[in-house]
């Protein structure tokens, strides 16, 4: 099979051939249906502590654009539904070719134009890869933020300004060391959905505690257009790099809000 992608001949409907877990019972993304979620008063606030990275790349890996530090630096996530500390690994995006599509998770069937994923791994593992393979839903913790078109996002501007430099698959650029990742996050990480799921790209491992925030972040139309200029390995616009929702099966989606 051609390397996986999002086109007709290698998209989500094909992934099960190399990754049979694609048809598993804990797959992501899902449609977050407000009438079926359950408020959990035990869910604590989340705390993300991000330290500026001295050596990080912004890259086009053929299926997303990704902020990737060369090594950990103590940036971590704790609290919420998490029992232990998770180390920051990378963040990346999924988007559409127009404003009516692009996010992976949906809310009552509604898609947002894009979704931002902050990926963290359970610090009781020796590495990110071990955490992916650790079995069970506590290997990774991924924060999902919906993006909607509105005011320019000043915190994301240093990243969206780099997009033209990574237009082609396999290219990367160094991120200025004064980039403040913490500024991307809302001041308080409240009001989120959380459920046990999977990576939304191959290997689709069912190792993720998903934490999806109810409140979208805003980006300008120009920032959205920057994403839509990114090219994949086939030389086509990368927009549409989102997996459709998967069956919930007998999972519960909990919320930190009523
Ligand atoms: N969209 S998402 O947030 O679900 C997400 C997607 C991909 C990744 C990611 O960095 N990798 C997936 C596994 N891969 C490398 C790998 C590791 C172990 C075994 C095999 C291969 C890297 C993280 C989060
Ligand atoms: Zn993702």
UniProtKB/TrEMBL annotation:
Keywords (A to Z) from UniProt: Lyase, Metal-binding, Zinc
Catalytic activity: hydrogencarbonate + H(+) = CO2 + H2O
SUPFAM superfamilies: Carbonic anhydrase (SSF51069)
Enzyme class: lyase
A single cellular component GO annotation: cytoplasm
Entry EC no(s): 4.2.1.1
InterPro entries (alphabetical): CA_dom, CA_dom_sf, Carbonic_anhydrase_a-class, Carbonic_anhydrase_a-class_CS
MF (Gene Ontology): carbonate dehydratase activity; zinc ion binding
Highest taxon of the lineage: Eukaryota
Cofactor: Zn(2+)
Start and end residues of each Alpha-carbonic anhydrase domain: 2-257
Function (record text): Reversible hydration of carbon dioxide.
Family recorded in the similarity comment: Belongs to the alpha-carbonic anhydrase family.
Name of the protein in question: Carbonic anhydrase
